[in-house]
Each structure stands twice: as C-alpha cells, then as structure tokens.
Amino acid sequence: MKLSRVFIEHFKGLDKMDVAPEGKDVTVRGKNGSGKTTIADAYAWCMTGKGFDGKTIDTQIKKRAEDGSTPNDGGVEHAVEVVLENEGRLITLRREFKEKWEKHRGTADREFKGHTTVYSIDGVPMQKKEFERRVSDLVKGDTFQILSMPLHFCTNVKWQDRRKVLMMMCGDTPDKKIIDDNPSLEPLRKELENKTIADYRKVLQSKMKKNNEEAKSIPARIDELTGMMAETSGNKDVLETELKSLEKQKADKEKELVGIKNGGEIAENKKRIAELEAKMTKFVAEFEADYSRKAGEAERVVAGCRAKIERLGETIERNQTEIERSKAAAETADKLAAGLREEWGKVQKEAFPDNIKDTCPCCGQKLPTERVEELRQKELDKFNLDKAAKLKAINEKGKRIMADKAKDLDKVSVLEAANTEAQARIDELSKSLEDSEKMLAGLDKPEATKQPDYLTMKEEVQFTENIIKSLQAGGEQEARAAEIEITNLGAEISARQEKLAAFKQNEAMEARIEELKDREKTLGKMYSDLEKQLFLTEEFLRAKVKATEDNINSHFKYVKFKMFEQKINGALEECCEPIIDGVPFNDGLNKGNRMKAALDIVNALSKYYGVSLPVFIDDCESYTSLPDVDAQVIKLIADGAHDELSVEIDD
C-alpha cells in the first residue's frame, strides 16, 4: 500500500499543503518548526484519529494564539485527505475537524457547542464506526503504527506484546522437536508427555529438597546415637565366660541348699505346694476373666449404644434445623420469583414512547425526514437495548433464584431421608441398649477366693506347709550359709549382666548408625540422579531458547532478538529485547543503529502481515545511511537552509 496524495488544510498551524508522491519516495526538508512532523501527524490522524506518536492530538489541531490558547475560529474546516494506492486501486480517506455553532431562534448570534468530526471515504460520508471499520479492513489493529512508525515497535509496544507478535510470526518450537534434535535429551521424552518442562522441574526440585532435608538430618541423628552409647569396661568374651561359670556355681549351690533343707520328702511337699498354688492362681484368673468377659461385653454394648444414639440424635437435630432453613429459603424464593414475574411482565409491556418531534425546538422549522427518522431510530434502539437488558437481568436473577430453590429442596429431601434412616437406627439401638442393661444388672461379682474348690486347695496347702516346717527343724545353720553364698553369686552374676547389657545396647546403636550411613549414601546417589535430570532440563531449556531465538532471528537481516534472560539463580525468564551487534536497543544503542534495527523489523513484519505501508522517518538528517525498506519511504529532514517546507519526490 502506498501514499498517492495527502492534502492538508488548517491543521496544527499548517494552512494548506498538497503533496502528491503517487507512490514514490518523498523527502521533506525544512527548518525546525516548519511543519515536517505535522505532515506525519496529519497522515496518522486521518488514518487513526491520533498523532504520529500514537497520542491524541485533537487539542492541537486548531491554530494557537500567541499566549498558547486555542481560540474559536468560527467554524473553519480542519481537514486532512489521504489518497492511498492499494492493489492498483485509489482509496480516498478524509477526516474533518470543525467547531459546532448553533443559532437560537429569534437571535442573530450563534453559540459555540463544541467540536465535531466528519468522515468520508471516496466522497461517501459515513459515521465514525463505519469509517474505522473500513480503515481496519485496510490495516488491522496496531499494524498501522508498527509499519508506518519504525521506532514504535521497539519503544512504544510492551515487550510482552512484542514477544507475542514475534512468536505468532515465527511459531514456537515443539518440545518433541527439541528432543529429536538433541539425542542427549531423550530421557526427558516420557516425562514431558504429560507435564510441561516447568512442572517437571518443580517435581525434581521438590524431590531434591526433601532428599536434602533428610540427608542433612542424618549426621545429627548419628551424633545423637553416638552420645547415647553406654560406657563399657572389660572384655566381652571374658565377661560371657565368667557369667556362665557364675551361673553354674549358683545353680550347683542352689541344688546343695535344696538337699540341705529338704531332703527328698521336703522336696516332694514343696513341689506339691507349688502345684496347688499354681492351680489356685489359675482358678482365680479364669474365674475373674469369665466374669469380666461377660460384664465387659455388656458394658461395651451399653456404652456403644448410648454414644451412637446420642450422635444420631445430634445429627437429626442438626438436619432438622437445616431442613427448616432450606424450606424457608424455598418459600422466599417463590415469593421473589413471583415478584420477578410481575416485574418482567411490566417491563415487557413497556412501549416505546415516541416523543420525537419533526420540528426544530429552536426555530420551529420542519426537520428533514431522514433526520427525524435518524433520531427516532436512535431513541428506539436505545429503548430496545435498555428493555432487553432489563428483561435479561430479571430472567438471569430468576434463574439464579430457582436454581437456589432447587438446591434447597434437594437438600430437604436428602436430609429428611437421612433423618428417617437415623431414627430407624436409633430404634434398633434403643432395643439393644435395653437388653444389654438388663443383662448387666443381672450380673453379680462373686469372690473367687470364697469358692469351694479354691478353699479346698487352700486347706491342702496349709497342711503341707506344716509338714515342711517340722522337717526343716534341723540343718538351718548350714542352709543359712548356703543361702548367703547364693546371694553373693547372684550379685556377681548381676554385675556381669549389666556390663554385657551395655555391650548389647552399643551393638544395637552401632547397627543403627550403619543403617543411617547406608541411607546417607543412598540419598547421595538419589540426589546425584536428580541433579542429572535437572541438568537435562536446563540443557533442554537452553536448546529451546537457542531454537526459538534462531528461528525468530532468521527472519531479520540486522537485528537479533533476545527472547530469554538467565537470572543469577540460573532460571530462565522470558523477555523480548532487540539487539544489534550485542547492544540492546533500549540500553545504549546509538541512534543510527536504532533506526537500522527499526527498519529491519518493519521489513520483516511487512512480510508477515502481507502488507506494506508508507514509512515515515523523522529526524532523517541524523542518519548517514539507512537499510533498504520494502515500502514507500517519506523522509523528514531538518534543514536550516529551508525556511519553508520543501518537498522532493524521487523519480
């Protein structure tokens, strides 16, 4: 698309100018303030309603007074007409900005009522929306500023939006292709089937964190076990040998004591007593266990039934409260719905109040039919939109109320069924409770030691003890000496056992320490494996960064785009910074290279969008050389030798 002609009239101090390049490159020269940038502003304003820098300029269009104010000019037309050549066809776009003045009936004076803008394409007047739609058909969205104003993409467009444009233009590199092109990344293929690389990295980092926390705790646990180890003395093997010898000596001495005290008859009687005492103990245990079993079962049943009945009662009470609340809410919903139906009917019956008059309220003259119809249609459209919005709001509110009612009624049904089931369960439990309480009341705890069988065994024990006493009358002194020796041997045995217990305790702790050391090695290997996987993800990201940047940068001749930035912690963060010769566009790049990068971007994006627009290069005197541009170029050059604008059209 090329600029064939631009006609400017009373625009930002430029009274009139007519430039007709007919699609050829143009060079405009003039001193500062002579109106060079005004030509670019006029072109941009006609196309978009904004200045060349994308900012609103309506307050700058009219001529300013010396004090900087903008006085009324009585209705002068401030117009810009642009003729574009698109695919061999000329399209004329015109935008006029002027004051609105109204004359009141019966007076000769006019009153200023603000400003208005008039639009036309190929001489056909149209409303603003239609004009903007037709312009958008030629150049969509932000494309006009991007392709006409070289520096716009790098300076005015947010980096996120720049990145989005480039990714749409060049496409993203699929993870599968990254792995296909880098065989070393093959272990990641399965992991990335159901996860993004970012999610997989989070999984690895979480595992590494847990692994590291456990590994860090092991030395402290080992130190704790080491500190708990008992002090040992002597040799374990010697202590075990001594213990066996002492135990044998004690056993021999105990046999000797038995022989001293008892002889054969005493031993038999003692054996009989031991048997009887064992039977008595067993009798008491079994007797009490039988009673405890019967009583315990009944008590557990009673307690369980009571607890369950109490919980079910609480549940029924809570459910009943919620049932009453839900029923009340449903009744309220019915009332609200009835009110909404009545309100909907009233709104539906509202008729359009056709109050449009066909005469001017000021002068009384009859208005044109099309003007009356336009006003009527505008009011009718507004009425219909408002009415539809009201009906829609009422309908949506009714739906919400009915949906809430349905939920409340569903809840009532569910809770009532639950209460019925709970009450049935309470009835069952109450019957079980009654039976168990009767059984428990009938249980009397008798004393085992008063039972006939127990008393018979007790009498026999007492009789046998009397026999033993009479047999033990002699040999008491010899027996006492043997007992003292047995006691001393027992003390020696206990001392050896304590020392050996310390050895056994330490052996158990040492075994646990070895287990912890083995676990520490296992964790180290696991951590190493996780590190390798994490390193693979970093290699993947680096490969993807390179593939993405290589793909994007292949579309440009001079400029390169940095699409990712590596942080101090090694993480990659998205960005979109144009660079020439290693210097970022917005961080130290000189003016010439900035324009070089900008025009390179314009060329690439023109190919992507499939359209070229006239490119305006302001301050062109600042550039000694510029790259070729695949579009019509309008150069604006500050030249003190030209007091007035000079327009040169290339052959």
UniProtKB/TrEMBL annotation:
Keywords assigned: Coiled coil
Protein name: AAA domain-containing protein
A GO term, aspect molecular function: ATP hydrolysis activity
Keyword Coiled coil: yes
GO terms (BP aspect): double-strand break repair
Classification lineage: Bacteria, Bacillati, Bacillota, Negativicutes, Selenomonadales
Gene3D superfamilies hit by this protein: 1.10.287.1490, P-loop containing nucleotide triphosphate hydrolases
Native source species: Selenomonas ruminantium
Domain of life (superkingdom): Bacteria
Domain Rad50/SbcC-type AAA residues, every copy: 8-276
Coiled coil region boundaries: 229-343, 412-439, 499-533
InterPro entries (alphabetical): P-loop_NTPase, Rad50/SbcC_AAA
